[in-house]
Amino acid sequence: MKHHSWCGLTARMGTVLSGVFSIMATHMHLIFERKHLGNGNCTENFQAQGLNILRYFFICWSFQIVLFTSIITMIASCFLLYSVYAQIYEGLMSYVIWIIIYESTSLTVQTLTDEFSVALVRAMRWFGWVSRASLHCFWLYFVVTHAQIIYQSKKQGNILTYHRRISLGSGDRPRRKSKIIHFVQHHSE
After folding, report:
1. Is-contact 14 6, C-beta < 8 A?
2. Residue 51, CA distances (Å) to 8, 39, 56, 116, 170 in order
3. Is residue 17 within 8 Å of 102, Cβ to Cβ?
4. What is the reported pLDDT for 117?
5. Paired residues of 6 in beta bridges
6. Orientation of helix 89-112 relative to helix 53-60, angle to 10°
7. CA separation for the pair 92, 120 (Å, rounded)
8. Nearest Cα to 58, choosing from 48, 70, 46?
9. Angle at 146 between CA 143 and CA 149, to 5 degrees
């Protein structure tokens, strides 16, 4: 199978780099958010301001949500790297689904906690999210392409195996001995 490349990378190499990028970007995101969300004070003041329950939950538990999704993202990224090695296309597609969930959750936390940040920090957080989400979209192209290649190769492998089973015989004909064996036995006497 001919390997196509895009931006000088094959689908497999781009998928590996996607996993490495996710681990590094998630770690950096977690460090940055720890500084700004980790010391959130959740008191009854938010309830008095008339916030709805969902928004109150996201604001009060923002760092815990970011921490949980970041840990799951790092695990999913490691599983992506293993899936590339083991040729498991389901692992690649589950990574794609998780990254979409992760970025959506990050956007929600970012939007709901935006008013509690200083203007400079707010700009840095938005720049970080836009950069990370854009690069995730770029790398997901490689992941989906590699998953498609793995799926097609496994599909072709199953078809070849299926044809081999059919061609091995129906089982109702007795096996004939090779003429070479008869020839060797005949001349050895």
Report:
1. yes
2. 50, 20, 6, 14, 73
3. no
4. 77
5. 9
6. 100
7. 37
8. 46
9. 155
